[in-house]
């Protein structure tokens, strides 16, 4: 069995360092005491290099000296005693296996004998592949007849549970680099041989990913780590060394790459020797982390340790610990700090004690709380207690972290970039120069944190009782504080506020934002952008306030934002968002729907869009636009102002506006608009390209089509336009007062006492007078041939592309002035009706109806419904012709024809010119009486026709019966044809 490890060269470095954990001691040492633990004089492990395989003569005096220096580092630190491996007996044997450093082939040495503590390493050189600088190998095989021989070869007397052993191995060094063998530091472009030798010897002593060895057993994947260790490594995927001593030193499990620490793993500012890379022109020595890892895998490592402990007086002490000057100044007494010191303990004692700690460029971290301070400077651990006032400074060159713990009283923390001030009833702390500061409030009291930003671009990120404020060169963190206030400086600064699991309230203005709930309040002032987040665990509400400039509010079911010329406030996930425009400027609100069924309510003062799980409210905005495009069946309710307002509605959008407000909606399936507040309000409603239906009454109007409905209530005037296409129909209803309906082929208008409805472009308009009052309708023809049909109940005038219908009107006037050959058909009622017709007009009236027509080329009137109906027909000034038969009578002349059917009494008069009347008998006994200028024909049915002022009258008997003719003085020409009996 064997393993082989490679080490690659590199030309660039991106160093990473992790802080050492601060450590506190239990109990106290009294007085000033300096203690150093010395190493043993008798060295244990003895590394013997064997040059048998150095066929190329790589190892000259310089190379051997550099190799021995690396070996000495191990020999002075490894304290183990290794037993000898003697010549075997009694059927026992063993094989030392390794790669020939010159050829790379496997070498098997039978029964290699090793002295006590001897570790044999065969060295040589060859051209290694890629950027590999060195390669170590080792292996063994054992045949044994007793357990003692196996233990001798494998463990060499190391009998403890966590022990390590080795017989040795081989190391091959690459022949291609420009090697640096000197004691001094390497120069640019050279590769330090000493550093590579240290690294490869680490593999010989067990730092490898050989299956089953201790290093491998201590290596775990991220998933295998405990939850707390996963948190320590930031949940970063990879493998980690979990040796307990190394973890305690490093502060977390250490990232590894196979049989190495991961690239750029460092300790105390120095990169680990056992990471896989080496920068040309640099040297890497073994770090304490490397030695501690060897300790973890079973080697006994000497760790020189020193500490210094000092006490203050019973009075007020002034103490300075200067880690640059390496001295302690206590009440003018100066004590030097040895370079070998690893632990320093200072006790303030009684009185109000003040301490100043000045860190060096290697200053790492400081922890302060309730009179104690724990700090680390390079390899020095500092512990201070019984201190009331403290100032801790970290140089700019240091990468440093500070932690502050609160007291049980009401404490106050103020942080700035690279500075923090903590005050309580008993303690005052000042931290200066730290890159990162943590403040933890966990001991009670109502604690306040004030956090200030830098002139650069900063970010404030807060949750209940917790916040991080960071920018270039600084990061301040607070945790557990009841109230956290953050103040932005110059630059573009961003604040993030996160909610709790309870019901919280956000209040945001252009100047500041605060989020508060049970037990916390987070406040941000002066930030260019603020983002607030609410998780769906409780009902959270947000309030936005505008600036004096022109602002815009945008809200969706999951997020809302209000932005202006110099601010941007955003809220995500809040169940209710209220936005207020009260400061001035022209402000616009944009409200967006959800995929469910939503409801919008808009007034001149406010708008509210509500749906499942959300409510967005805008108050005081000059313009509010609401959009329904996400799905669901959405309804909008729009309300007017006390002034004169105007509504414009299409199937896709509706806009209600007045003198100081504008509410616009788009995409809603139904829009209801109400004019009830006062003023003279006008609604303009437009159709779709489909078949639409418009219905209007004295109070309401609605236009309905495919997937839309527009409804109005209380508008003084409603205009509806059919211009987009489709077969559209309008229905207009009267009021209880006296109403007037006017209709042309292109428009119609119903005027009521309190409202007016106007339609344009509709193919059919139906008007209904059913509510009462004395209602009149006026219908106008087109320039083409039109047809009027009128009954006592309704009138319809139709032509090419139009139909106007009026029902229930007390009077209907119909006009054919526009051209074409127009025909009017009039029907009587069941009562006694009266027809009056001239050459250019006609009117048929009866109980509760009056139908009037004018300028129709032909008027046909039918008296067939019952009652005693009379007709008066008057001719023109031209030559007119009257024809009267048993069932009908018609009077015609130039440009007109009046036809009357089934009237009980009909009187026809000539109007001048050569007028002729033809009177025909009926099937029964008829009687004609001619006298003066008139001729009366009384038919057997009782119907009577009178012809007046005709120049010529022809009496024609052709239907049978006994007809009589009675003539007295007449002033017209009378001709009788057929069987008449003169009496």
TrEMBL record:
Highest taxon of source: Bacteria
One annotated GO molecular function: metallopeptidase activity
Biased composition (Basic residues): 12-27
SUPFAM superfamilies (alphabetical): Metalloproteases ('zincins'), catalytic domain
Renumbered residue ranges of the record's region Disordered: 1-27
Name under which the protein is recorded: Matrixin
Organism whose genome encodes this protein: Rosistilla carotiformis
């Amino acid at each position: 069995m064997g393993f082989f490890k490679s080490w690659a060269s590199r030309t660039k470095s991106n160093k990473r360092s992790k802080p050492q954990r601060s450590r506190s001691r239990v109990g106290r040492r009294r007085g000033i005491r300096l203690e150093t633990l010395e190493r043993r004089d008798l060295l244990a492990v003895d590394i013997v290099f064997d040059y048998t395989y150095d066929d190329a003569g790589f190892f000259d005096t310089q190379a051997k000296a550099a190799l021995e220096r690396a070996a000495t580092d191990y020999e002075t630190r490894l304290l183990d005693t290794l037993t000898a491996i003697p010549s075997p007996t009694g059927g026992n044997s063993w094989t030392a296996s390794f790669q020939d450093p010159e050829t790379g082939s496997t070498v098997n040495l039978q029964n290699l004998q090793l002295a006590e503590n001897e570790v044999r390493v065969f060295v040589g050189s060859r051209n290694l592949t890629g950027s590999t600088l060195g390669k170590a190998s080792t292996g063994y095989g054992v045949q044994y007849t007793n357990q003692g021989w196996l233990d001798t070869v494998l463990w060499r007397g190391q009998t403890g549970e966590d022990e390590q052993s080795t017989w040795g191995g081989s190391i091959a060094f690459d022949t291609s680099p420009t090697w640096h063998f000197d004691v001094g530091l390497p120069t640019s472009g050279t590769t330090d041989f000493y550093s590579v030798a240290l690294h490869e010897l680490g593999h010989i002593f067990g730092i490898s990913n050989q299956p089953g060895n201790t290093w491998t057993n201590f290596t775990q994947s991220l998933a295998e780590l405990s939850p707390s260790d996963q948190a320590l490594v930031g949940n970063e995927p990879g493998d980690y060394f979990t040796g307990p001593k190394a973890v305690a030193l490093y502060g977390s499990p250490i990232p590894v790459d196979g049989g190495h620490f991961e690239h750029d793993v460092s300790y105390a500012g120095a990169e680990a020797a056992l990471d896989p890379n080496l920068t040309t022109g640099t040297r890497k020595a073994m770090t304490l982390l490397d030695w501690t890892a060897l300790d973890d895998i079973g080697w006994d490592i000497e760790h020189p340790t020193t500490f210094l402990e000092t006490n203050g007086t019973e009075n007020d002490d002034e103490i300075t610990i200067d880690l640059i000057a390496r001295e302690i100044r206590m009440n003018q007494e100066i004590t030097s700090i040895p370079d070998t010191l690893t632990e320093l303990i200072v006790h303030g004692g009684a009185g109000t004690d003040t301490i100043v700690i000045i860190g060096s460029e290697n200053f790492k971290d400081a922890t302060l709380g309730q009179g104690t301070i724990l700090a680390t400077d390079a390899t020095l651990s500092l512990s201070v207690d019984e201190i009331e006032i403290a100032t801790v400074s970290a140089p700019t060159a240091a990468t440093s972290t500070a932690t502050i713990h609160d007291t049980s009283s009401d404490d106050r923390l103020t942080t700035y970039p690279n500075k923090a001030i903590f005050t309580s009833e008993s303690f005052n702390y000042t931290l200066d120069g730290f890159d990162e500061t943590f403040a933890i409030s966990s001991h009670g009291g109502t604690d306040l944190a004030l956090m200030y930003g830098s002139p650069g671009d900063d970010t404030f990120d807060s949750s209940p009782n917790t916040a991080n404020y960071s920018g270039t060169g600084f990061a301040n963190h607070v945790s557990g504080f009841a109230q956290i206030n953050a103040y932005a400086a110059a630059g573009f600064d961003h604040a993030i506020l996160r909610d709790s699991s309870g019901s919280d309230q956000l209040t945001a203005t252009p100047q500041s934002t605060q989020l508060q709930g049970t037990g916390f309040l987070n406040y941000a002032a002066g930030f260019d952008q603020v983002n607030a987040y609410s998780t769906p665990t409780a009902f959270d509400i947000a309030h936005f306030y505008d600036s004096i400039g022109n602002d815009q509010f945008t809200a969706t079911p999951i997020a809302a934002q209000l932005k202006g010329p110099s601010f941007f406030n955003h809220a995500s996930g809040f169940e209710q968002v209220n936005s207020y425009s009260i400061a001035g400027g022209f402000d616009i609100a944009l409200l967006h729907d959800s995929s469910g069924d939503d409801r919008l309510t808009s007034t001149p003062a406010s708008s509210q869009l509500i749906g499942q799980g959300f409510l967005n409210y805008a108050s005081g905005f000059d313009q509010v636009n609401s959009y329904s495009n996400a799905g669901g069946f959405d309804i909008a309710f729009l309300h007017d102002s006390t002034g004169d307002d105007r509504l414009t509605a299409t199937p896709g959008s509706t806009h209600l506006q007045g003198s100081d407000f504008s509410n616009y909606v788009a995409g809603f399936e139904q829009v209801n608009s109400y004019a009830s507040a006062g003023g003279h309000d006008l609604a303009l409603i437009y159709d779709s390209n489909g078949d639409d239906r418009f219905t209007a009454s004295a109070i309401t109007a609605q236009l309905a089509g495919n997937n839309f409905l527009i409804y109005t209530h209380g508008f003084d005037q409603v205009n509806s336009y059919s211009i987009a296409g489709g077969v559209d129909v309008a229905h207009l209803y009267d009021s209880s007062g006296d109403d007037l309906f006017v209709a042309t082929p292109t428009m119609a208008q119903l005027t009521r006492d309190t409202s007016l409805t106007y339609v344009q472009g509709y193919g059919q308009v139906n008007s209904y007078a059913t509510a009462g009052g004395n209602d009149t309708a006026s219908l106008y023809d087109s320039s083409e041939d039109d047809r009027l049909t009128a009954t006592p109940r309704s009138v319809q005038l139709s032509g090419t592309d139009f139909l106007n219908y009026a029902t229930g009107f007390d009077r209907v006037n119909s006009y054919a002035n526009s051209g074409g050959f127009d025909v009017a058909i009039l029907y009587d009622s069941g009562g006694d009706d009266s027809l009056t017709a001239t050459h250019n007009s006609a009117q048929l009236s009866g109980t509760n109806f009056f139908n009037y027509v004018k300028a129709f080329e032909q008027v046909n009137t039918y008296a067939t419904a019952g009652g005693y109906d009379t007709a008066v027909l008057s001719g023109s000034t031209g030559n007119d012709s009257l024809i009267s038969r048993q069932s009908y009578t018609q009077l015609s002349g130039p440009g007109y024809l009046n036809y009357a059917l089934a009237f009980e009494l009909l009187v026809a008069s000539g109007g001048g010119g050569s007028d002729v009347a033809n009177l025909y008998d009926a099937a029964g006994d008829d009687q004609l009486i001619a006298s003066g200028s008139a001729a009366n024909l009384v038919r057997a049915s009782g119907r009577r026709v009178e012809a007046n002022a005709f120049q010529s009258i022809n009496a024609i008997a052709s239907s049978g019966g006994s007809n009589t003719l009675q003539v007295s003085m007449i002033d017209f020409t009378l001709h009788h044809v057929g069987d008449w009996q003169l009496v």
